[in-house]
Specification:
Blueprint (H helix, E strand, L loop, with lengths): L27 E4 L21 E2 L5 H12 L14 H8 L12 H20 L3 E6 L8 H19 L17 E5 L11 E4 L8 E3 L5 E3 L4 E4 L10 E5 H11 L7 H5 L2
Antiparallel strand pairs: 1-2, 1-3, 3-9, 4-9, 5-8, 6-7
Helix pairs in contact: 2-3, 3-5
Length: 265
């Protein structure tokens, strides 16, 4: 299942390029991609999104990511993530503030802070686009092939949503999007505006789980790109520099809702 997410002039799109069935991640990944493979569109094998891993230190999850990256010829950089105190986490949640109410727990606040640490890294390094992964994410060994299938669909959906925009970018994904929601655990598939492509690397099951837990049927081995509705989970999403600054500026002093609920607005 693939989705595009874009937020420009109040328009929000989302993208799911590949399935990532994972759990909550304490460490986050900001990855700079370095793809190369014969038979794949060369534009999808260069540093087109940017990938760097942000982690608080060595772990079994990071070891697994390194092995997966080596196997699929993806370069990972892993800067250090701060070790936040209990007070810092509670301050982010708004604990102790007068008339303050929060809907997030300690772990959810740490998740938020990890994402913000990644976004700050992106802003400081002045990267134009970045793919953020949580440390329990996974990807298919055919990821380069899958990206080459989806790239033209991403551009087409974005152009349809913002028809007056021109896209003169050399990137295979275009430059008229703000956020691509690449990995999530369910969204509502709209009845219109969906582009699809056959992908032989997908499982043959025709079942898709929407964000309410309901399973619906689609033709097997079909990936879809569409405007997001209400996706849940943040296993993987790509952002532009503008979007990174917007999210960071809004959330850096603390949040009261989980990250999924905020960035999909």
């Amino acid at each position: 299942m693939a989705q595009i997410l874009r937020a420009r002039k109040s328009a929000i799109l989302g993208l799911a390029l590949f399935y990532m069935w994972c759990f909550y991640a304490k460490e986050l990944l900001l990855m700079r991609v370095s793809f190369s493979a014969p038979g794949i569109d060369s534009k999808c094998t260069n540093d087109t999104l940017g990938i760097v891993v942000v982690s608080k230190g060595p772990s079994a999850r990071v070891d697994g990511l390194r092995r997966a990256a080596e196997f699929t010829s993806i370069a990972l950089d892993i800067p250090l993530q701060p070790q936040w105190s209990t007070k810092e986490v509670d301050d982010f949640r708004g604990i102790g503030l007068n008339e303050s109410q929060t809907d997030i727990g300690t772990g959810q606040a740490q998740c938020w802070m990890g994402h913000l640490n990644v976004l700050r890294e992106m802003i400081q390094r002045e990267w134009s686009t970045v793919l953020i992964l949580e440390d329990d994410a996974d990807w298919d060994i055919a990821i380069k092939y899958q990206l080459s299938l989806l790239a033209p669909l991403i551009i087409e959906v974005a152009r349809h949503r913002i028809p007056q925009s021109s896209d003169g970018s050399d990137s295979p994904y275009g430059d008229i999007w703000d956020l691509l929601w690449i990995g999530h655990c369910g969204d509502v598939i709209p009845k219109t505006g969906v582009l699809s492509v056959f992908d032989e690397t997908l499982p043959e099951s025709s079942k898709y789980r929407e964000n309410n837990g309901q399973f619906i049927d689609f033709p097997p081995q079909v990936r879809m790109v569409h405007i997001t509705d209400r996706p849940i989970c943040t296993y993987a999403y790509a952002v532009t520099a503008k979007t990174a600054k917007l999210i960071y500026g809004k959330a850096r002093r603390g949040m009261r809702r989980i990250i999924t609920a905020e960035i999909r607005q």
